[in-house]
Design brief:
This protein is mainly alpha-helical and 94 residues long. The protein contains four helices and no strands.
């Protein structure tokens, strides 16, 4: 996966907010795997992955429905951000 930027986190959290709470952990893991696969493809071919984009977390997140970005970091946003950060920091082999 390409280096994380603040926009990557916002896009991924918006995708998590748009899905049912019970499915959020699986979606976080899926977006991270998609970004990793896309980045490998990009490095090997020099081209964006046809389904997952350029290897950024944002490109992977934008493939999914997105909730609007809240005006402030409310409880739901913070919970999704925490879930996402836990997935990012989890040991390899998710």
């Amino acid at each position: 996966m390409r280096p994380l930027l603040p926009g990557d986190l916002d896009a991924a959290v918006r995708a998590l907010l748009a899905c049912p709470p019970a499915a959020r952990a699986a979606l976080a893991d899926a977006m991270l795997r998609q970004a990793e696969e896309a980045d490998r493809h990009r490095r090997q071919t020099g081209l964006a992955h046809p389904r997952y984009g350029t290897g950024s977390l944002m490109a992977a997140a934008l493939r999914h429905p997105l909730a609007p970005l809240p005006d402030q970091c409310d409880t739901a946003y913070c919970g999704c951000l925490l879930l996402l950060l836990d997935a990012i920091l989890a040991p390899a082999g998710r």
